[in-house]
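Interim report to the steering committee. The following record documents the input for Developmentally-regulated GTP-binding protein 2 (364 residues).
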Amino acid sequence: MGILEKISEIEKEIARTQKNKATEYHLGLLKAKLAKYRSQLLEPSKKGGDKGEGFDVLKSGDARVALIGFPSVGKSTLLSTLTHTHSEAASYEFTTLTCIPGVIEYRGANIQLLDLPGIIEGAAQGKGRGRQVIAVARTADLVLMMLDATKPYVHRQLLERELESVGIRLNKNKPNIYFKIKKGGGLSFNSTCQLTKVDEKMVQMILHEYKIFNAEVLFREDCTADELIDVILGNRVYLPCLYVYNKIDQISIQEVDRIARQPHSVVVSCNMKLNLDYLLETLWEYLSLIRVYTKKPGQPPDFDDGLILRKGVTIEHVCHAIHRSLAAQLKYALVWGTSTKYSPQRVGIAHSVHDQDVVQLIKK
């Protein structure tokens, strides 16, 4: 019995098991087995064979965005519209057969956009080069999920399920669970809040499934068994996701309004170039990028060539972005902008900067 058959057997077992107090331990154990088999499926086989054609592209620019979606939803058209790169687009499925990178130049930042081949149901098991597509998505900073506004909602659920099964968690935070394997001393279980979804017995059963008998587990929030399994495996990727609904010129205005009001959703039409500016604005927000400008003493700020950094960065990160030896030589910094009480404010290395701040660095 192969891994795929085992996975389908467990999925059928979970589907036909009633969810109640009596079966929650059994379901927890099945979920742990399912996650274990899926991680085995993702691991490359030990047998040395001919290496396939390379699929991933060298990471470049300030951020990386992966375009994922079913065939013929307009991924290549979006890439050609937003960037200067041409990606072949035609009215038949699987026009794009490899990864095509493009660069979006927006607010002084270079955002790498990857046009990936369309994925089909069962991509996580390797159908239609699906595994390579999903592997590239794991390396991105943001997933841009292209959907056809004329197709049913089930398409979005299918894509989410494919990404979930390979350990990509969309628009979720990492579970606040402290987990550490120990040499001995058995299982130490504790929680700082009331747990309603798991208890000590279930945690013990899930850990035993992974042959872990000595560990320290601390729940800092009310998490489910699935989230505990994610923490134990430790190979999950938590990515922001933007759902882009294309072909809105083919549906009614009421339907467009309904889709646009859904969380994390943007409606566009690549063919008629509708709402693409708002898509870029939302993309910038989700990537949490900020611009910081530098200033030489006695000269106006250099607004042409800003530093592109992530939200929450400090003066130390600004120093590293200019030169790695600068942080050690810094005496203080003068900052103009919204992160200060008055402008200019003299600040230290731990000061957090905001978008469009102007920084002047003074060396020792």
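The CA atoms of residues 293 and 303 lie 6 Å apart. The committee is asked to note this result when reviewing the revised timeline.
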